[in-house]
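Question:
When you can, review this sequence-structure pair and walk me through the tokens.
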Amino acid sequence: MSEGINFEFLIEAFFIALSGAPTALLITLVTLIVAIPLGLLGALTRINQVPVLKQLTRVYVSFVRGTPVIIQIFIIYSSVPLLLASFFEKYSINIDVYKVNPIWYAFIVFALYTTANLIEVFRSALNTVSKGQLEAALSTGLTHVQAYRRIILPQALVSALPNLCTTTTNLIKATSLGFAMSLPEITLKAKVAANVGYNYLEAYIDIFLVYLIICSIVEYGFKWYEKRLAKYKAAVA
């Protein structure tokens, strides 16, 4: 085992780790596409006190947010293939579930996890908008959908952006757990490269730098978009 930091490997491994970024970003993008509408719907069921759904949403949020993501990964990655294999065997469906790309399991795990977080983000943001504005919109002849789309949601989005940014960056960092499903993302690629010469310190430094760069860019993007929505801030206040 070499002493000190191997700067040659440090530079080499940085680009190896960076090559795993597209996988991490793909998981993040697909997860957000699924989780944002589901999170908004879940928040609306709680805001509007929808019977049964309100209780189910509360239990779901408590369960998902109260358990480690890595445990959720192990449960889904282990149980879903077994359930699907049993189902396919019962109905004579010729599909080998054990050859399914593990990224599909990552989509499921992170979508479930992020939806629970976004339900709370959107619920908090919607509560910042005065109920009087909804009543005023309805009194002018707008439907509930039109009132939310034109008046309530634009204002709530401004309040939600900081927490949405935090949720997104946390999701990006959580994709590092994809190594548990053998996903060729940032962490796994760097660790595999480090196995040859046991250069794990350099690999972890590179992983740190790659995630720092990606998350910093994402945070900048959210700040830029928040400025674009500045016209709604006065209404929120």
